[in-house]
Fold this sequence. Notes:
Layout: H1 8-39, H2 43-47, H3 61-68, H4 70-103, H5 109-121, H6 126-135, H7 142-148, H8 153-163, H9 168-176, H10 181-192, H11 194-210, H12 213-218, H13 227-239, H14 255-293
Helix pairs in contact: 1-14, 3-14, 4-7, 4-8, 4-11, 4-13, 8-14, 9-10, 11-14, 13-14
Amino acid sequence: MLHSKMTKMDYVIEAVLIVIGAIVCICILYPILNILAISISADGPVLRHDVRLIPQGFTLKAYKDILKNESILRAFGNSIFITGVGVVCSLAATYLAAYPIACCEFPGKKIYNVFVLIPMWFQGGMVPSYLCVQKMGLINSYWALILTALISSYHVLILTSFLRGIPRELLESARMDGAGEFRVMLQVVAPLAKASFATIGLWVIAGHWNAYFGPLLYITKSERFTLQQVLREIVLEADAAQMDLGTARSGQVSVNIADQIRYGVLIVSMIPMMVIYPFVQKYFVKGVTLGAVKG
Length: 295
């Protein structure tokens, strides 16, 4: 029987965990606060490398330059479109793949399960994937990024695990009342799976928003670049001190200005995920927990 009072060892373990958690938080927050401080600091302190966590000579010049730059704004819009359409399509495909496994009985179900699991261990590879996308005429198309990341076996397993926890009696009752399979799937089961949808949706959003290799492979036209591609271009050009974002004079850009713009773009790229996560956090924790317990 567990004691209601904590022992000295329990207090020691709790204190150690708190210290470890604090160290992890500092390691995560310090780089973010540092680049935020640099992005809103004046040129002189940045050039002298005096900025750490507190901005010096507050200015929003870098962000004004970012908002004036068409390539950054266009890339931001491209990433939002790909992420928005991608998460809707991915959730729909994942649900359509998981529902038969969890809620239906049909001939060949075991074979179907095997085909769902195979991509977790074996994949076609980069070259076959590129050739398929090329044959479909999707090079330089947003759909190349959406379709190649449409479904994940891991996401199917997570959702299947959750759906199996829904009482069978509820489904049978709906079917006895005359509801067809699609109605059961959309009006009975789907509302109960909101937590898992939110969990998987957050993973898909993060994957699309931070995707770099896919856009680098399939997108070559600059007007279709995602935010990560433009950020890469900014980093490379800033390192060479040859970037022109409307702050140049006679074709020259100071390295400190380039650093401010580079870090400003990093902060801007973080904003969507920072805005979305608080709204889905409770569903995220619940979805992961239920998916693990009800498997």
